[in-house]
Amino acid sequence: MSLVTFVLLIGGFVLLVVGAELLVKGASILAGIFGISPLIIGLTIVAYGTSAPEMAVSVMSSFAGQSDIAIGNAVGSNILNILLILGASAIVTPLVVNRQVIRSDVPIMIGVSVLLFVFGLDGTISRVDGIIFFIGAVLYTLSLIYQSRRQGNGLNGDEFAEEYGFSGDSSALVLAKNILFVIVGSVLLVLGSRFLVDSATEIARALGLSELLIGLTIISFGTSLPELATSVVASLRGERDIAVGNVLGSNIFNILAVLGVAGIVAPDGIMVPEPAIAFDIPVAIAVSFACLPIFASGSRISRWEGFLFIFYYLIYTGYLILDSVNHDSLPLYSTVMLFFVIPLTAITLITVGLQKDNDKRKT
User: Fold this and answer.
1) 266 with 63: CB under 8 angstroms?
2) For 223-270, what is each residue's pLDDT tens digit?
3) What integer pLDDT is reported at residue 111 of this predicted model?
4) I need a surface site. Which of 6, 204, 223, 362 has the fewest CB within 10 A?
5) CA distances from 274 to 59, 76, 267, 306 (A)
6) pLDDT digits over 9-44, tens only?
7) Are the CB atoms for 217 and 142 separated by under 8 Å?
């Protein structure tokens, strides 16, 4: 490890923050110009732009025969997106969840996560599996475009004027400027993630960590920083639909498009390691399922639920670290989580959900 490694690490963070600001601003004003809801923008342009690092890393890893990194990157990013990014965004400001998300996008996210588990049971994401995933990505995107045309312009002009200075001007200059913002923001996000991933991977390998663990932690964190920066910036600006849509769209895109393309271009498909099937992919499915009661209870993610998400991300990361070094405390750690923390959380969520439903009926 050299000084250059740490310079790239810091430079990557700076590029991510600047890129996220440009992407959110450009995409939000484009939503106003074309009359597309912020939720659809978050699920498509922003989600795809911030998932570009995952695409680059997984495809390059597949070509290089590093399937553990490709799978770990996609699965780890999906777990991190929900637990850490939505958690951090909800702590910044409680997130109101659009009904479309509860009815459509969360079930789709659950469905594609289960499909990844099924396809991975034979130990490989084959080229045929990749084609199926990619077709699913195309169909999902087309359905979002169709929904946006049906919904029409549901935006609040005053909100856009206050947050972005959007005054309804849709001239060619304004259009070109904000398209440029989206492009430059996406490029900066990709470059920042690349610098961050390369430097973090070098540091991790110097510490003797496995490729799967690197993919699930260091690389998934690095490639998910665009989503983190974008969603937090969107929350600060009041664009809560973009914050939520960005995470859900990215998770769906990570499986359907990222692993789809990687599976198509990989010479022998993507090898799925047994630990991913036994633990990490089921965790991703469980996290996706957890969104349903939290999102549906009052159609919002409160601050305390945001803290709960982050708490579980720390628990998951702690388990990965203990498992990687075969620590003696791992059995006790697992037992406490399985028989105390998780049941207590479930009881709390059910109780709070029932209370919110009663409050809604009274009003």
Assistant:
1) yes
2) 777 778 777 877 777 766 667 777 888 899 899 998 999 899 888 888
3) 94
4) 362
5) 21, 15, 20, 31
6) 788 878 877 887 787 778 777 776 776 666 677 667
7) no
User: Can you read off the two tokens belonging to residue 167?
Assistant: 């005054």
pLDDT class of 134 with cuts at 50, 70, 90: very high
Q: Cα–Cα distance between 214 and 283 in angstroms, integer?
A: 17
Contact 263, 125 (CB under 8 A): yes
Contacts of 213 (CB under 8 A, 6+ apart): 72, 204, 320, 324
If we measure between CA atoms, which residue out of 122, 120, 101, 116 comes closest to residue 43?
Answer: 101
For the chain, domains (ranges, CATH) are 3-327 (1.20.1420.30)
Structure tokens, 350 = 């059910």
Q: How far apart are CA 195 and CA 145, in angstroms?
A: 33
The gap from C-alpha 187 to its chain's centroid, in whole angstroms, comes to: 18
Bridge partner residues of 270 (DSSP): 125
Query: Is residue 57's pLDDT more than 60?
Result: yes
Tokens of 220: 């998934």
User: Could you tell me if 39 and 98 are in contact, meaning their C-beta atoms sit under 8 angstroms apart?
Assistant: yes
DSSP SS3 for 300: strand
Contact between 22 and 234 under an 8 Å Cβ cutoff? The reply is no
Q: Give Cβ neighbours of residue 316 (< 8 Å, ≥ 6 apart).
A: 79, 83, 283
